[in-house]
Design brief:
This protein is mainly alpha-helical. The protein folds into 2 domains: 1-19 and 130-213, Serine Threonine Protein Phosphatase 5, Tetratricopeptide repeat (Alpha Horseshoe); 38-128, no CATH class. Helices cover 53% and strands 0% of the residues. The protein has 11 helices and no strands. The longest helix is centred in the middle third of the chain and has 14 residues, at 92-105. The termini are far apart.
């Protein structure tokens, strides 16, 4: 469990976040399980650009005990996670904790959470469509818990659409494509990340390991050879 959490945290930290837009991508449909702005509730505030509005939420409802799924702070654990996500739909760490809670309880709607975790992800994507951290975490949840590869791929596709010139986002989208078995797309992201100056080659090494990395071009032969 600790290793899985560390892996998710690394993904969340390194996916990168693109500037948000007001409109949902045209190709993406939403079942709108809950409104973004909940009546008589604090928020909603952007976890990336409005984090200064969230200490009052985090200090009371998203304590270390809640984040690590040990116990609730003001009541039930699920209630505190719900309050946090109600106040900040794209709260990356709270979404990650909710993912882990669902996996532990083996329920998309764990005990005392106001909505299903998949609903909270849907709400987060409507709130900030270009938040690529949300897209990456949602893809992991769809793949690892919901067993919905097609939906997971769609989330990674959107993250790539909004990746811009962020090499970390391209790299980590490639890692997700690799996990999804989309090796050609993973290779495309690895190439783009390299072009943008990403220094690590762990994705390239993974692709080489399954013989899915394009052959490196041979160095140019010198036009003339030096005489002895």
């Amino acid at each position: 469990m600790i290793q899985r959490r560390a892996k998710f945290l690394l993904l969340a930290a390194s996916l990168g976040v693109a500037p948000w837009a007001a409109a949902q991508p045209a190709a993406e449909a939403s079942f709108e399980c809950a409104p973004v702005a909940l009546p008589r509730h604090y928020g909603p505030y952007d976890y990336v650009t409005e984090r200064s509005r969230l200490p009052i939420v985090d200090s009371v409802h998203f304590t270390a005990d809640v984040e690590n799924l040990r116990r609730g702070s003001t009541g039930y654990l699920g209630g505190d996670l719900s309050y946090t996500l109600n106040a900040s739909p794209n709260h990356h760490r709270a979404l990650l904790a909710a993912m882990r809670f669902a996996m532990r309880e083996k329920k998309d709607q764990p005990p005392h959470m106001a909505y299903a975790v998949s609903c909270y992800f849907d709400r987060a994507t409507r709130f900030r469509p270009k938040d690529t951290v949300v897209r990456g975490l949602y893809a992991k949840y769809l793949l690892d818990f919901m067993n919905d590869k097609g939906a997971a791929i769609r989330q990674v596709n959107v993250a790539v659409e909004f990746a811009g010139d962020n090499p970390l986002t391209h790299h980590n989208a490639g890692l997700l494509y690799f996990e999804l078995g989309e090796f050609s797309k993973a290779a495309e992201r690895a190439v783009r990340a390299r072009e943008l100056g990403y220094p690590r080659e762990d994705l390239i090494d993974k692709l080489k390991g399954v013989k899915q990395w394009p052959a490196e071009p041979a160095p140019d032969e010198p036009l003339t050879k030096a005489r002895p």
